[in-house]
Amino acid sequence: MNLLSVGASYRTAGVGTLERLTIAGPDIPAVLHKLVAQPYIGEAVVLSTCNRVEVYAAVSGFHGGLGDVCNVLAEQSGIVAGELAGHLYVHYDEAAVRHLFRVSSGLDSMVVGEAQILGQLRDAYHAATEADSAGRLLHELMQQALRVGKRAHAETGIDRAGQSVVTAALDVAADAFGGDLSGRPGLVIGAGAMGALSVATLTRTGVGPLQITNRGAERAARLAEAYGATAIDFTDLDTALREADVVVSATASTEPVLTAERLAGRERPLVILDLAVPRDVAPEVADLPQVTVVDIDGLAASRRTMPAAAETAAVEQIVAAEVEHFLGWLRGAEIAPTVAALRTRADEVVAAELRKLSARRPEFTEEQRADVSRTLHRVVQQLLHSPTVRVRRLAAEPGGDQYAALLRELFDLDVPHATQADAVPEIGEQA
Known about the structure:
The chain has helices at about 15-20, 30-35, 60-75, 80-85, 95-105, 115-130, 135-155, 160, 165-175, 195-205, 215-225, 235-245, 260-265, 295-300, 310-360, 365-395, 400-410; strands spanning about 1-10, 40-50, 50-60, 90, 185-190, 210-215, 230, 245-250, 270-275, 290-295, 430. It is α/β, with parallel strands linked by helices. The strands form 2 sheets. A 6-stranded parallel β-sheet has the order 7-6-5-8-9-10, with helices on both faces. Strands 2-3-1-4-11 form a 5-stranded antiparallel β-sheet, with helices on both faces. Helix 13 links the parallel strand 8 and strand 9 (about 270-275).
């Protein structure tokens, strides 16, 4: 099996396309099952956030695997394959590992260094585990990706130099109020992960009084209690909107929550941060007087705060080292079936010779046969021990796959899945 990563993000697609591509949490298990039901896909993990949708898959062939992933994404989003292809990036094998580690460490985020992606990646891995769509390869990959992200934040200042998406959005919003949001009444719509992050960030920024509303009242109440905010019923949303100067909307609604009719007649400035995908704010709201809308597209265009070059370089070094570490594990894992096949062949040879010996020397007692059998097995084990230990070590080094191929050739071993079914000319990023 080989690694394949296919996705779209704020770098390659606008909000409109990401809205159609995004996969809601409740739909992810069905998409995972659909992916692993495809002929070339053995394992799958789906990462769907407000600004990226990515599939990580273990595939038996590049072209077949890519076609399978694209077909599922096209069917799920309703975007025809030809149009979808223009927004997708594709990474294979080593490049797929490097891309995921850059994502987990925050290097590929809209706001470089933000740590929220780690929680989102953990949720994606958990969903795949629950759906039984992650096998040995993706289990190891995802666990190491999470370790890489934690290491990047623990060993560098990438998180201090960068910001969360919410912080970046508030920086843009502050411009509408002379650079300071302190003391401005705020409203958060939605009490999920992004809503909770918004409440924490708004509180730290000094926005207040702060109200929270959610279709599930209990969740809003718990969040409000934790931050000293006020939970209001979702039916009172219109009243709360009239009282707020800063609104963050981050729901999972498939239809706009904030419409022009709902916000018409505003007499003082209102800044709305639409952090949802699909968008919570109808497009025509941006044309209303006194209303400023900041969405994912706007944030992508205003990436004003970047981490120091030294911090970015330090994380890139961590990523490079961890990629090589994972590839070493992968090369070692790939030779394991070949070593097992060699030992099986040796056992078969010993068994055949013992049968011949029994036929030639029927006078041997059971005890004598057992002694001969133990002796032969010990000799074979001792002969194979050093070469197999050595070949495992060599296989973990760059170019180590040649040793597995050499063993298969020398001993004429038939190892299932030992060769790649659908080779590509070059490992790396595919256009």
